[in-house]
């Protein structure tokens, strides 16, 4: 686990810290747990909108922290409690404020390989990009497996109505909206921002359970296809 200090760590010592109290996962209005689950054999994670160092985000999104230092330490602690050094984290944007040096300080305290999907608060420069293992504007992932079958996933900072393979069971994960965008129970899309998931990265298995609750249907001329009637093409 990486170590280091950002701000005054003493501010995280409160009578009932967010870490000790636990958070309710609020996505789609369903309780997904309090962050105490066991995550054996998990190596791929997703998250978004950490906004490290962004004091105003506490008020904007009503985050339950008394200071930006407390928020930062809670986010780092929850990240490292789940993510190990050999894991991969897809971060869907708005990593931190404060410039390249600040982003690098936060990144050095976080476990795992971080693949950033750029958000509107992430700088566009080679120096900023060098903080992360990879940086993309949008990314389609095809190599992950769910229940022994390949799962196609489109990753973007912003929510989309249609994405590659959306009528064939492909998933879309996004951030940006901090849980304020109503979830569509008929679309295989999900806000994986920290404000929706207990201020911690989300596992592939958690996402699978959330998607299993949905009842997808077509919203344009493309018929939603099952494995039984799937044909070539997007």
Can you walk me through this structure?
The protein is built from six helices and eleven strands. The protein starts with 17 loop residues before the first helix and ends in a 22-residue tail after the last helix. The strands form three sheets. It has a five-stranded mixed beta sheet with strand order 4-3-2-1-11. A four-stranded mixed beta sheet has the order 5-8-9-10, with helices on one face. Strands 6-7 form a two-stranded antiparallel sheet. Strand 3, helix 5 and strand 4 (134-136) form a beta-alpha-beta unit. It is globular and about 50 Å long. It has one domain: Metallo-dependent phosphatases (Purple Acid Phosphatase, chain A, domain 2), CATH 3.60.21.10. The protein has 234 residues and is α/β, with parallel strands linked by helices.
């Amino acid at each position: 686990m990486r170590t280091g200090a950002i701000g005054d760590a003493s501010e995280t010592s409160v009578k009932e810290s967010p870490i000790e109290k636990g958070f309710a996962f609020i996505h789609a209005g369903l309780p997904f747990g309090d962050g105490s689950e066991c995550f054996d054999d998990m190596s791929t994670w997703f998250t978004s909108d950490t906004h490290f160092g962004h004091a105003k985000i506490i008020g904007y999104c009503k985050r339950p922290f008394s200071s930006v230092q407390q928020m930062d330490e809670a986010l780092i602690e929850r990240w490292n409690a789940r993510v190990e050094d050999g894991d991969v984290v897809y971060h869907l944007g708005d990593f931190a404020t404060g410039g390249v040096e600040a982003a690098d300080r936060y990144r050095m305290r976080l476990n795992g390989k971080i693949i950033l999907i750029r958000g509107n608060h992430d700088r566009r420069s080679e120096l900023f990009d060098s903080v992360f293992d990879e940086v993309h504007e949008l990314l389609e992932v095809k190599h992950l497996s769910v229940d022994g079958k390949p799962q196609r996933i489109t990753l973007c900072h912003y929510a989309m109505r249609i994405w590659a393979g959306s009528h064939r069971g492909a998933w879309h994960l996004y951030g940006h909206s901090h849980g304020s965008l109503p979830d569509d129970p008929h679309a295989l899309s999900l806000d994986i921002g920290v404000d929706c998931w207990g201020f911690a990265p989300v596992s592939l298995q958690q996402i699978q359970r959330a998607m299993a609750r949905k009842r997808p249907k077509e919203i344009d001329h493309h018929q939603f296809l099952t494995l039984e009637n799937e044909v070539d093409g997007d």
